[in-house]
Every structure is written in structure tokens, then in C-alpha cells.
Design goal:
Shape: globular
CATH architecture: 3-Layer(aba) Sandwich
Largest sheet: 6 strands, mixed
Helix content: 25-40%
Radius of gyration: 16 Å
Order of helices and strands: EHEHHEHHEEHHEEEH
Distance between the termini: 15 Å
Amino acid sequence: MKALIVCTNNDTYPTKTSKTGLWLNELTHFYDVMAKRRILMDFVSPLGGTVPVDERSLDLKDECNARYWEDAAFRQKLRNSFKPSDVDAADYRLIYFAGGHGAMWDFPASVALQNLAKTIYERNGMVTAIAHGVCALLNVRLSDGTLLIHDKYVTGYSNVEEALVSFVSEVPFYLEDKLKECGAHYTKAMIPFVEFIEMDERLITGQNSHSARKVATKALEELFEK
């Protein structure tokens, strides 16, 4: 079984001089759970090539982050992610959209990523996403024309969390609001920044970066233990 992990290529904010990109533990924590089950994983990004990492997420006191950040093969995969046209959706049982603010600019606009998610889902695969990565699902339409997330229970980075990290002036939209506009049933934890996931059949979403392990664990349960 193979999993396809999607990361952003975008490292800039419209006005902030600081850089954004992938939020590291949203990748490493998910990757670690999958690796322990010997799941093969490919990295893809909207444009292929280098995946930038948000400097604020480079927490190397996090043992899992440190271990993968110092792993040459892992770093090589981050520098050489596939383009969507390089991969065949039929090869994957699962797709995972990692977050970080960078994703808000390039995930929703990528028709190629939407097609990968749609195909994997319609072939009975799992679609999973976390935090800002959930924005990739906003425009995914199934073959019958309906939005994938319409009438589905989902979570993702909340308005409160966005306000607390004070990036409100920078983000192009509030993810929580957009998910509701798409007809999704949005849920979240009572307290910001605690682990929380939502599952609706073959769609699993995590609210924030603390939820990545749980998303991965739940996805494996669904794939292997049913």
C-alpha cells in the first residue's frame, strides 16, 4: 500500500516579510506513524520540487521533527517532491494534505491536486488532511458534480486559532468559514490547539498540528482493521 503526501510550495505572505511554508510536525508526525507500519510514501506538491518549511515550525526539541530533519533521505524527498503529473492516483490508497499557512495560497487553486483527491476517494481510498491543509478539499468535486465535503463532518484550523496566532491580516480567508460555506458540518475542540479529529466515512480531517498522529492512526485503522 502507498500513501501520497501533499505539501505546499508557497513560502511567502502577501505583506509579512517572514516566510511561511509547510508546518513541519504536520508532516513528520503523520509520516512517523505511517513509516512504523512500513507504508510507502511519496511527496507531491502543486509545482513539484522544493517544499519550503515554515521557520516557526522548525522545533527540533520535538524528537520526531529532529529525527526526520536530520535524515538525509527524508530531506531529499522534501527537496524533490513530485508534480501532480508525475504520479498516478491509482497507485495510492490514501492521500494526506499537510498544512502550514503556505497551503492556503496554492492548495485551493490546484485542479491537479483536486483530481488526485477525487480519484483516490472514488476508488475507495482515504482522503485525509490537517489544519490549513484541509483547504485543499474546498474545491474537490466528485464525478457527480457535488463537492466532496458537502454534508460531511470535517474539522480544520479554527477561526479562534487563526486569531490567536495573529495572522488574521495575512490569510486570504478563514478556513472554518469557507468549510461551512461549502456545506460541510464543521466541528472543533472546545479548547484551541488541542488534538481533535473528525471522521466521515473515508474522509478524516485534523483540526491543528497536534492532531497529525491521530489522523494517521485512524486512517491506518480504517484501512487495515476493518
